[in-house]
Write a structure and sequence with these properties.
- The complex is a heterodimer.
- Chain A is mainly beta.
- Chain A folds into 3 domains: about 110 residues, Immunoglobulins (Immunoglobulin-like), CATH 2.60.40; about 110 residues, Beta Complex (Ferric Hydroxamate Uptake Protein, Chain A, domain 1), CATH 2.170.130.10; about 550 residues, TonB-dependent receptor, beta-barrel domain (Maltoporin, Chain A), CATH 2.40.170.
- Chain A contains 6 helices and 48 strands.
- Chain A is elongated.
- By secondary structure, chain B is α+β, with helices and mostly antiparallel strands.
- Chain B contains 5 helices and 12 strands.
- In chain B, strands 1, 2, 3, 4, 5, 6, 7, 8, 9, 10, 11 and 12 form a 12-stranded antiparallel sheet that branches.
- The radius of gyration of chain B is 22 Å and the shape is globular.
- Chain B starts with a helix and ends with a strand.
- The chains are: A mainly beta, B alpha+beta.
């Protein structure tokens, strides 16, 4: 009887609970919130984990499983090549439909060896204050590191010798990686594949220091953080027998789920032979000068830090960077590095021949510590705050010049006088403490409010000594307080941002309060999108140029036999009011895609700081001193092109400007100069998995106060070969067919003096050979296994796989 | 007499056994041959918003041609072409007619539909009528999206969002999957029932269709099948969706299936769906009760 009752009960249970169930859900990338296509989804019956049904997610990330039963327990296993495998128990429901909602997949460790991509099409997105370049993998694969990727953006130039970065010809650039301030050496630790997008902000908002001309923010792919990986880059650049350069960088990176550590180091060793020629005419006197300068030097940088993301709302970064450079570190007066011959004529008759031997050397070392914390109140990153602290301290900064003068009889060139060796020396100590905090509050999806404040305490003292004269020291203290408020409004087809930065600065020089100033620095930018292919941007901002320590340092320094230079303790900041109008157009003609960005700009400059050379009526010596000269303006147009012609990538940036400087006392006559520069980069696929790269950089004359400078063109042709072991070899010919390298001609045409100076490097061969290798240790499968086991444990059920 | 009784008994046994012999309802299409399926559906929709009831009559006509390209391991690559996608909407306040088979005028939607009708899409379908996957969905979508180049800039944004909604993979799949989702996975006998299901997506609204078929009779190599479909809307997983639906209903079908090809020769359906649509706008919600009375007819075009 008992058995019968149990059988009847079991039958009843069976009859009541058995029903078909459809399981659905949407698989989404946890980082980007985009649908994940082609994920392999398995419906597994528990407890034996036998496969009931499998399917592949579609282009919307949608999954539908039809064979579930409401009476049974299942788990879902989702696998995808670039995501962590996910296993979870399906919540039981009695209804026919069991909608799992959005299933977030976390990007997995990338194994570089598995990535084979050839795409080179760069996607350009225009926002009100910035241009975003989504970098194609083909472009990244032909780059050696993050800095090399940056070279390939249309509006950015990275110098191949000293790696200086300019944007639209301006050099005060702030570099950020994921919104955190970094230096360019940090970019060298980034593997090109880690770089996802690059943002170029040519009209920086209030959160940035008002001195910054442009901001480059590199957005990395968080998935590339995982695993142990490393990178080695080596570059050799022989130019001639006495000129060469070698550069190397290594980096090591270990990332786990929530934390990653990194350490990177790079160094450079160089020796350049620079020839110079100068001709100066001042009244009845003229001076012809020719010289050679040997620059031997090295620099080194070490970055170490950690990135800690405990959850999706918090982000902590700590970075410690050591940077150092030395010029002519082993130089001595027995082997001076500069030899300068002066031939003086009066009324065309040789009056004096002299020679100056100099030995200059310098050393600069510093340690920078940066702590960054960011907190988001919501997942959309619209409400949050960030804090950044940065401390810099010099370790050993000094520079010295030993020099000796030798006179010759102009008639028979017999030595008539030889001075003792004289010395100029400076020891600099600098401490900089910067703090910055920003808060973003969205009112709704339309309006957003940003406020922030910054403190920057900058202290440096320069201990000067000179054999020539008593020279005062410099003790400089600057407390800079900044704050900003900004309101932005999003429209259906554009956005407007209006705000202002306020800066107050307290400067004390040599214990005397020199200058306090208060600057409102308003800005406005707006964009209007006509459609996906056409948009316009208009921006206005007021920027400040503060005098540098070198410009303020009163040390009287000998430039040559007849010229001294010194800083100017009375310098004031200069201001620039910049207005830019940009039209962005995307044109597609068959296989040709063009991103065009013609731009009109106008910049009014107030109290520009420029170096003035004038003759001292008492000593008859020429003095080179920076001054707040009168006002000026710059106006012109630019055209930036990023094009994709079939498989060929071609970037070009042309900029024309008309520059005007008002007259300044009797030193500068009102001057108009037309300036232009053209930068182009080309990359084209070749047979045998080779890529051809070429670059051309031509500059017109630039105006700096009294002087006009013309640089020679720079160009190269190169081939890149990508090997299967994750290494690449670049061979580049710099300025082929040219006998001079980096030739610069500067002309000064003032009321009382005309001077023409030419410097160049002799070229015999300039072939840069760059070898790059990266590796990754740690199988992603093992990681997946670990993650899977962890998930099983967390979900509290066992799967007998 | 004894012989007569035995004869009748065995004859009845024979008939009975014949009737009980399982039949294999499977797609057995000739490779390279073009088949056309025409479907006409009429829907009378009543929607209530702010206390006012609006009526809407929607007549949809579709002609889809298909051709088997290859057959491997019980899975066919079938090339589909949506020859005609025509819709006529009539209401007291609004009338609109589109027909993809006609040359497109200036209306962006007409252009997109017309372009859709010019393209072919290949899908993998099992011989039991199950949709497996698309072969060239990306290419099909890209080819249709090219039509946006011919749309004036002022209308392009709107046209793009319309095209994106129409060309969602699940939406295109919903135009193909129901064509064959009436076949059983195994052999069936008279009065046997089998179930199929699929998700129908249109205008960002997804409905789950659960079909229960029953083999009623076989006559002259044609199977007569009845079906009852339970329909239920699927809550959207898109947090930014402006419309969410809670609809439920049922439809009854009567179909005839050609045993030789496995294709449905005729199918008539009648049903009702009702529930509520919820519109979200700037944090406010508006609930709109809705009733849909539907009739449809699907035929093989010879």
């Amino acid at each position: 009887m008992k058995h019968k009752i149990i059988i009847v009960l079991l039958c009843l249970v069976s009859l009541n609970s058995n029903a078909r169930q459809i399981i659905t859900g949407n698989i989404t990338d946890k980082e980007t919130s985009k649908p994940v296509q082609s994920a392999n989804v398995e419906l597994l019956l528990l407890p034996d984990s036998s496969a009931v049904e499998t399917m592949i997610s579609n282009s919307e990330g949608l999954i539908i499983l039809y064979k579930a039963d409401t009476a049974k327990t299942y788990c879902l296993r989702i696998r995808h090549l670039v995501y962590k495998t996910m296993v979870f128990q399906i919540p039981k429901k009695k209804s026919t439909m069991n909608n799992l909602g959005v299933i977030l997949l976390e990007p997995n460790t990338f194994n570089f060896k598995e990535i084979v991509v050839n795409g080179t099409k760069m996607k350009v997105t225009e926002l009100g204050d910035r241009t975003i370049y989504a970098l194609p993998d083909g472009l990244k694969k032909t780059s050696t590191d993050g800095l090399d990727v940056l070279r390939k953006l249309p509006s950015v130039q990275v110098d191949y010798l000293n790696e200086g970065i300019t944007v639209n010809g301006k050099s005060n650039i702030k570099i950020e990686v994921d919104g955190i301030t970094r230096d360019k050496e940090y970019l060298k630790r980034l593997h090109p594949s880690q770089v996802d997008k690059m943002e170029v902000i040519t009209s920086p908002l209030g959160k940035y220091d008002a001195e910054v001309d442009a901001v480059i923010n590199i957005i990395t792919n968080p998935a590339m953080r995982f695993g142990l990986k490393g990178m080695v880059n080596v570059m050799a650049l022989p130019i001639s027998l006495d000129s060469y350069m070698g550069r190397a960088s290594v980096s090591l990176d270990y990332g786990k789920e929530k934390i990653s550590y990194y350490v990177s180091a790079n160094g450079m060793l160089q020796q350049f032979g620079i020839n110079s020629e100068m001709n100066r005419i001042a009244g009845i006197n003229d001076l012809q000068q020719s010289g050679t300068l040997s620059i031997k030097g090295n620099n080194q940088n070490v970055n170490a830090g950690l990135i800690y993301d405990p959850d999706e709302f918090n982000d902590i970064n700590l970075n410690i960077a050591y940077s150092g450079n030395a010029s002519n570190p082993r130089g001595s007066i027995s082997k001076p590095n500069e030899d300068l011959w002066n031939y003086n004529r009066t009324n065309g008759i040789m009056s004096n021949i002299s020679r100056t031997l100099s030995n200059s050397k310098s050393n600069n070392d510093g340690l920078t510590s940066t702590l960054f914390y960011k907190h988001k109140f919501n997942k959309k990153n619209t409400h949050g705050f960030e804090v950044e602290l940065n401390y810099y301290n010099t370790l050993n900064n000094n520079s010295s010049t030993d020099f000796q003068r030798i006179d010759y009889n102009p008639l028979d060139t017999i030595e008539t006088y030889r001075s003792t060796w004289l010395t100029e020396k400076s020891i600099t100590n600098t401490q900089t403490l910067k703090g910055q905090t920003n808060y973003t509050l969205p009112f709704d999806s339309v309006y957003s409010f940003n406020i922030g404040m910054s403190t920057n305490y900058n202290k440096f003292n320069i201990d000067n000594s000179s054999s020539l004269a008593q020279t005062p020291n410099l003790d400089f203290n600057n407390l800079l307080l900044g704050a900003y408020a900004e309101l932005s409004r999003n429209f259906k087809k554009g956005s407007v941002k209006i705000g202002s930065r306020f800066e107050t600065s307290y400067v004390t020089i040599n214990s005397t309060e020199k200058s306090d100033y208060y600057s409102p620095l308003p800005y406005l930018n707006g964009s209007l999108k006509f459609n996906d292919n056409h948009s316009i941007k208009l921006s206005y901002s007021r920027r400040v140029i503060r005098p540098t320590s070198g410009q303020l340092n009163p040390l009287e320094s000998k430039v040559d036999d007849q010229t001294i230079s010194r800083g100017n303790i009375d310098l004031k900041p200069a201001y620039r009011d910049n207005l830019q109008f940009t039209y962005n157009a995307k044109v597609t003609l068959g296989k040709v895609t063009l991103n065009l960005a013609p731009q009109l700009f106008y910049e009014y400059q107030t109290g520009l700081i420029q170096t003035i050379i004038s003759q001292n009526v008492n000593t008859n010596k020429f003095e080179s001193v920076p001054q707040n000269i009168s006002n000026g303006y710059q106006t012109g147009s630019g055209l930036s092109i990023n094009s994709q012609i079939g498989k060929i990538l071609f970037n070009s940036n042309f900029r024309y400007s008309f520059n005007h400087v008002d007259s300044y006392l009797d030193q500068i006559i009102a001057t108009n100069v037309q300036n232009w520069n053209w930068n182009s980069f080309l990359m084209a696929p070749m047979p045998w998995d080779l890529k051809l790269i070429a670059m051309l950089n031509i500059n017109g004359p630039t105006l700096d106060g009294q002087t006009k400078t013309q640089m020679s063109p720079f160009y190269f042709l190169g081939l890149v070969k990508q090997f299967k072991n994750n290494s690449s070899l670049n061979v580049m010919a710099f300025n082929p067919f040219a006998s001079r390298f980096f030739e610069s001609t500067t002309t000064l045409n003032a009321n009382s003096v005309y001077q023409r100076t030419s410097t160049f490097m002799k070229t015999q061969a300039a072939f840069a050979i760059i070898y790059s290798y990266n590796f990754k240790i740690g199988k992603s499968i093992e990681k997946q296994k670990h993650t899977f086991e962890q998930q099983v444990e967390e979900n509290g059920f066992e799967l007998p796989f | 007499m004894k012989k007569v009784i035995f004869s009748v008994f065995f004859a009845l046994m024979g008939i009975s056994l014949m009737a009980q012999a399982p039949i294999n309802l499977k797609l057995n299409l000739v490779k390279g041959k073009m088949y056309r399926i025409k479907s006409i559906s009429k829907q009378a929709i009543q929607q209530t918003a702010n206390g006012q009831t609006f009526s809407l009559d929607v007549t949809s006509t579709s002609v889809t041609s298909c051709k088997v390209l290859k057959l491997e391991s019980e899975v066919m690559d079938i090339e589909f072409k949506f020859d005609t996608i025509a819709t006529k909407i009539s209401s007291p306040m609004y009338n609109k007619e589109t027909n993809s088979a006609k040359p497109a005028g200036n209306d962006p939607l007409d252009k997109i539909m017309n372009k859709m009708s010019q393209q072919t899409i290949i899908a993998k379908i099992s011989t039991s009528g199950k949709f497996v996957d698309f072969v060239n969905f990306g290419k099909f979508k890209d080819n249709v999206m090219f039509v946006l180049d011919s749309i004036p800039a002022a209308k392009k944004d709107q046209a793009k969002s319309q095209a994106e909604a129409l060309l969602k993979e699940s939406a295109v799949k919903s135009m193909i999957e129901p064509l064959f989702s009436y076949l059983p996975e195994k052999s069936v006998k008279m009065n046997d029932a089998w179930e199929t299901s699929y998700i129908q997506t249109a205008n960002n609204v997804s409905m789950l269709i659960l079909n229960t078929f029953q083999l009623k009779s076989i006559d002259n190599n044609v199977a007569v099948v009845s079906c009852k479909s339970e329909i239920e809307s699927i809550p959207t997983n898109d947090p930014e969706a402006k419309v969410s639906s809670e609809l439920k209903g049922s439809i009854t079908f009567d179909s005839t299936i050609d045993l030789a090809t496995g294709l449905r020769l005729t199918s008539t359906a009648k049903g009702r769906i009702d529930g509520t649509n919820t519109m979200k706008n700037n944090g406010t919600e508006m609930k709109m009760p809705m009733v849909i009375d539907s009739q449809s007819e699907t035929i093989m075009v010879k």
